[in-house]
Amino acid sequence: MENVFEKYTNEFLTFKDYKNNGLNGIALYPAMMIDEMQKCILEEILKIYEKKENLVLLDPFHGAGTTLLIAKQLGVNSIGFDINPLANLITKAKLYDYDRDELMSDKNKLFDMLDSNIRFHLHSFDKIDKWFRLDIIEKLSKIRFCIMKIENKFNRLIFWTIFSNVVRKFSNSRSSTFKLHMKEKQKIDLMTDNVIFEYKKELEDALTKLSYDACSVSTQLLCGDSLKLLDSIKNESIDIICTSPPYGDNSTTVTYGQFSSLALRWIPREDLDGYAASVDYNYSSIDKLSLGGSKRKPSNNLVYLNEYLELISKSKQQKIINFTEDYIDVFEKLSSKIKKGGYIIFTVGNRKVDNQLFPFVKINDELATMYGFSKVTELKRSILRKRIAKKVSSVDSKAVESMSEEYILIYKKEGENQNA
């Protein structure tokens, strides 16, 4: 099967002319996958199966829902997990099949309220005046209040999703990084207060891209710890696992939690899932709850990991151990959920720690062999567009370059596939 992927060269997979201006691009979220790339890879895998009607795809780290959206378009049932409530909300908004007339009616109600002199309460939370100007707080509070007046919870999904974009855009945090870093005071002072105009404009655009056709494909989304949620899935019940797992602990790799924290402070808990509503979120809690967020003791014999730990300082070893131990637990559980002959498709990267490349690709290869998978292929692509700086940290007074390449790893579980 490896030969079918020969056409997927590095140049092809960069998608240099790609523009994320469809349904997948309606919401801001860190490190989003290219939907066209995922579609190409999944289409090749699906050619193996005689029937795809009853296939089930799992994405245990669904992020902004790119893979699940493609699965739906290709007629594949899917299950998605993510620990981040904002990711869960955004993905639901993309995947839901709306009633066009009801949604347009609610949009008109919302706009009428926004254009009126409706009385509303100023929203408040810890350090709100640090991250937002007072006039911006007033406008965002009005939008928040008016969305809450819309009775249809499913229609509110898309209203909150676009609201999260506007919260990010008009915050005092820099847009050039996923972390919470203050803009210069001059830039904060010069921001134009056109919050409601921008919100209405973005929402109108998003409504042209949503799905309004009833779909027979099943999609199940859950918000929470993937390791725990995997217990709800029967062993050997998944045909394809397709995901981009974290490349390292969130706090020092991609800070999904920090990115999401401001929007989550504005969105009411009752419009988030049960797990999300029960967690006491602060500006770093999601990242601490994610893979590598708590201290672990080393308990594995991975050759590439142990060789790597010898290359980095003692002070940096612990966070690598924390992440890898958590990741091994997830990999082991994933391996038990996939059917014999099923496929894993991982998009991963080798980040730098202590200016040394963490061999995440090789570690995945080692785990795949350990848990009964054979490697189908490995594809490499250059990352042309990044919203993080090219230099992300400093070691010994020298700048460290951020990740510029990704790898698509495809594994097959040993055994005969009954549907192929």
From TrEMBL:
Pfam families reported in the protein's UniProt record: N6_N4_Mtase (PF01555)
**Keywords assigned by UniProt, alphabetized:** Methyltransferase, Transferase
Q: Which InterPro entries match?
A: DNA_methylase_N4/N6, SAM-dependent_MTases_sf
Any keyword Transferase? yes
This protein's record includes keyword Transferase:
yes
GO function terms (MF aspect) = DNA binding; N-methyltransferase activity
Which SUPFAM superfamilies would you find in this protein's record? S-adenosyl-L-methionine-dependent methyltransferases (SSF53335)
Domain (DNA methylase N-4/N-6): residue spans on this chain: 41-85
Which Gene3D superfamilies does this UniProt record tie to the protein?
A: Vaccinia Virus protein VP39
Q: Which GO terms describe its biological process?
A: methylation
Q: What is this protein called?
A: Site-specific DNA-methyltransferase (Cytosine-N4-specific)
Q: Which species does this protein come from?
A: Anaeroplasma bactoclasticum
Q: Write the lineage as a comma-separated list.
A: Bacteria, Bacillati, Mycoplasmatota, Mollicutes, Anaeroplasmatales
